[in-house]
Specification:
With 432 residues, the chain is mainly β. It folds into two domains: 87 residues, Roll (Ubiquitin-like (UB roll)), CATH 3.10.20.310; 275 residues, Beta Barrel (Porin). Helices cover 8% and strands 51% of the residues. A hairpin with a 3-residue loop joins strand 19 and strand 20.
């Protein structure tokens, strides 16, 4: 390939759909540790390309997939002619992942707290895309966690599925009920695709948790203090057509998650959660977006649902203008969560500059929580609705996190709610 000149795929793509093609060889340049059987699984489909246009398209897909599953850090396909008639040779110029990576970064936790993380890892450990990562995270509020994870992808033409295992320990303060929580867990998981738009996830959780009451904790919180063991299985299936996950401009998401805990351990319940999102462009560059979330947890047998397993609502990522996880049944100064919750948010966005990162938006959010022992969930949800409206700006950073600065006014609340009118800042990943 030394002195040859190659052109961009756009020169040929769409103009060579009738040119017959025979792929005679696929070659890799830059391979050190990647196993041959892994490469064969990734590029075998190229030999079925019947036209030059199809070969160009498939070569691009193969190079992209090599990077996404962790086999390569960079991959560039180069298509060369072969001596025979209609014959081609596909060359992949690749760069394999670094032997070891170490980094320090600032970020945002899922609760919106600023944190610092020390990360170390190795990609493609055994030459088949396996990844080992470890991290230690410390937040500005004093929470800290340690995580060790392993993931192995299932290789093959355009396969996006993997199995994973993680071991973590987390120590955090729960301000909504004035307690400290320690969690030690082993989680086994499977992530896969039924189709390109239908995603499937299974998790097996083994958790040892310790809830420690503080001097400010209510007696209802102290009743749940101590050690608990939780063994559960989670199953989630999602249909996702959004153009991006954090702030979509078009598309829909429908995700159903179920969790069953028991018969081993102290926790015994079944949980259901339904997440719905839809976004569509409007005239004048506006974007209309709507999100809804329904959650329900029910104890099995005679066991009461533990404080850590209940549903919570409130905060800058769902019902804005209210304190984090403070909606629902209260005892003195603590929130005890609930057995069911419903939340909905309607947004109107207007891109600013840069248009893919900075947005002005107005919204209305509403939600309510029903008690764990509710005898009529629908009536309790209707009687305890909270509503807030607001206007502000949203900033999206590389689909990694979302920052909102809003002026929020709660217009409907209940006695004892932690709510305030004014400027609120929210940061995180999972926003309604």
């Amino acid at each position: 390939m030394g002195d040859k000149t190659f052109h961009k795929a756009s020169v040929l793509l769409g103009q060579a759909n009738s040119a017959p093609t025979i792929v005679e060889a696929v070659q890799f340049h830059g391979i050190r540790i990647t196993k041959n059987d892994a490469l064969v699984k990734e590029v075998s489909e190229l030999y079925r390309s019947s036209t030059l246009d199809e070969l160009v398209h498939n070569s691009h897909l193969a190079a992209k997939h090599l990077q996404e599953v962790g086999l390569m850090e960079n991959a560039i396909p180069l298509i060369d002619t072969a001596p025979s008639s209609n014959g081609y040779i596909v060359n992949f110029v690749v760069k394999e992942p670094k032997a070891f990576s170490l980094g320090l970064k600032a970020g945002i936790s899922t609760n919106g707290d600023a944190d610092m993380s020390l990360n170390a890892g190795k990609q493609s450990v055994g030459g088949r895309g396996e990844a080992i990562n470890t991290s230690y995270t410390y937040t500005v509020k004093g929470d800290h966690s340690f995580n060790l994870s392993f993931a192995k992808p299932f290789l093959g033409w355009q396969k996006y599925s993997n199995v994973s295992a993680s071991l973590f320990r987390a120590i955090s303060y729960l301000p909504w009920n004035h307690s400290n929580c320690e969690e030690n867990a082993i989680i086994l998981g499977y992530n896969g695709q039924v189709t390109r738009k239908i995603l499937h996830q299974i998790k097996f959780n083994t958790m040892w948790r310790t809830l420690r009451a503080t001097d400010d904790s209510a007696f209802s919180v102290r009743e749940h203090a101590g050690h608990t063991m939780k063994f559960s299985m989670e199953n989630a299936i999602a249909f996702d057509t959004r153009d991006r996950p954090i702030l979509a401009s078009r598309g829909i998401l429908a995700r159903l998650t179920q969790e069953y805990a028991g018969p081993f351990g102290d926790s015994s319940f079944i949980r259901h959660q339904l997440d719905l999102q839809a976004a569509a462009p409007l005239p004048l560059g506006l974007i209309l977006s709507a999100s809804a979330q329904l959650k329900n947890v029910k104890g099995l047998g005679d066991r009461e649902v533990h404080l850590l397993d209940r549903v919570y609502l409130g905060g800058q990522q769902d019902v804005r203008g209210f304190g984090l996880n403070t909606l629902g049944v209260r005892s003195e100064n603590s929130c005890l969560g609930g057995g069911a919750a419903a939340c909905g948010v309607l947004h109107l966005y207007r891109p600013l500059f840069p248009p893919q990162m900075f947005f002005a938006h107005a919204f209305v959010s509403a939600g309510s929580v029903a008690p764990v022992r509710s005898r009529n969930i629908m009536r309790d949800l209707q009687d305890a609705q909270r509503v807030s409206i607001g206007i502000g700006v949203a900033f999206i950073f590389r689909n990694i996190f979302r920052l909102e600065v809003n002026y929020v006014a709660p217009i409907k609340h209940c006695v004892g709610d932690s709510q305030s009118t004014g400027v609120h800042i929210g940061c995180g990943v999972n926003f309604l």
